[in-house]
Structures are given as structure tokens and as C-alpha cells.
Amino acid sequence: QVQLVQSGAEVKKPGASVKVSCKASGYTFTSYGISWVRQAPGQGLEWMGWISPYNGKTNFAQNFQGRVTMTTDTSTSTAYMDLRSLTSDDTAVYYCARDKSSLWGGNWFDPWGQGTLVTVSS
Amino acid sequence: QSALTQPASVSGSPGQSITISCTGTSSDVGGYNSVSWYQQHPGKAPKLMIYDVSDRPSGVSNRFSGSKSGDTASLTISGLQAEDEADYYCSSYTNRVLFGGGTKLTVL
Question: Which residues of B touch A95 (CB under 8 A)?
Fold first, then answer.
């Protein structure tokens, strides 16, 4: 079955960076995109951006431009999201999700990874 | 403040039907057939329920349906069941993805 498995919880200090991984299985990795969405405690969903494992193209939400990097490793069907200059406002659960399109993104997402809690605290 | 506007909460009794609205603008919801809906139970990842306004993924109950009129999209759940109690988020996708603030559905 199609599955996305994310890396474990992280605790970071303000100003640091965090890198979250997302390993895909059960489908052809390069045929779909990967989007990243985060959810602060008790809050709603916020789309961060999309990457195409097919050609490496990215599309970032304006709020994260210049502070996020998204990459993929097609040899291991794994996507990565790197977020820099962390503040307490970045404390959230970070989700990867399979995006409908490998050519332009984001779109709709199915399925989602289990989520990775990133806590930013001094 | 979210880009798309949803009611904070709705409720209904088992067997009843409820509708959750999602209001945007002509630049997002109103301009394209690019609206999706997600269900999220506490502590769980979101699950896709509707995409492209009214299409249902395989495995999603036909009790869930989507529609759109002008700048407002709607999710209707018929024959409410206890398991439907969850948070629901709408999303619009054009060259960027916008989410609504979420609606908490309570099954009385």
C-alpha cells in the first residue's frame, strides 16, 4: 500500500535548523510530487511548499521563501525538508504528503505521512 | 487569519446531514475547480475526502459529497455517524495552496 514514513521528533534551539525526512513506498516515487504542510499546536494547516522528485522543481509558499529547502533522493524514494533560522513560532507537527502532480504543485494530497513534531525551545 | 473562511464548529445528530462551507475569492475557490477537503481526527494525520470540488477518492464513503457555488465550496456529510466527528479543512489549489481555518464537527 502507498505509505509515507517520516523521521522522528526533534527538539531544536532558536536559530538552529531542522531536517525532516519522508520515505515513500508502494508507488513510483517520480510519478507524483511531495508537498510539506505544518500544523502548530491547536492550529490549522499551513502549506509550506512542493517538490517534484521527477525533475527537482520546487514551489514554495511565500511565507517560507528563502528559509526552506526541499530535496529528494530518488535512489531511496525519500524526500527531505530543511527549515532554517528556527523560532518558537516554528514549533509544529510537520507533514509530508503525496501530491497529485509531479509537474506542478501543490495540488491535493493523498496520503499523508504520520507527522514529525518539531519543538523549538531554548 | 486563514485565507479561506470556514465556520469554527458545526454539529448534528446521528443520521442527519450537515454542510460545512468554505468561502474564498474569485482568485481561488471561485476561479477554478480546485477545491479539496480533508478530515482530521485528534492526533492523526489529515485524510483526503474530496478533491477537484466533488470527486471522491477510492475508499471514501459516498456519504461525503462536495459542491461549489461562486466563491463558496461546501462539504456535505449525510447519514452522520459517530466516527465522522473530527476536524475538517478545505483547501484551494491554484499556483499555491490555501487552507481554511478548520471546522470542528460534533456528532451529538
Answer: 45-46
As given in the structure block, the three cell numbers for residue A100 are 497529485
Nearest to A48 by CA among A6, A122, A118, A106: A106
Helix (H, G, I), strand (E, B) or coil at B102: coil
How many Cβ atoms are within 10 Å of B79's Cβ, its own excluded?
Answer: 12
C-alpha cell, A93 = 507537527
Entry field: residues in chain B = 108
Cis peptide before A53 (omega within 30 of 0): no
Task: Write the DSSP symbol of residue B55.
Answer: B
Chain B residues in contact with A44 by the CB 8 A cut-off are 2, 89, 99-102
Between A27-31, A100-104, B90-94, the lowest mean confidence (pLDDT) is in A100-104
- For every residue of A44-109, DSSP letters joined together read -EEEEEEE-TTT--EEE-GGGTTTEEEEEETTTTEEEEEE-S--GGG-EEEEEEEES-SSS----E
Q: What is the pLDDT of residues A26-54, one digit of tens each?
A: 999 999 999 999 999 999 999 999 999 99
Rounded to an integer, what distance in angstroms lies between the CA atom of residue A75 and that of residue A117?
26
**Cβ neighbours, 10 Å, residue B37:** 30
Alpha-carbon torsion, ordered B57, B59, B62, B66, to 10 deg = -20
Partner-chain contact B99 A45, CB within 8 Å: yes
Residue B74 contacts A, CB cutoff 8 Å? no
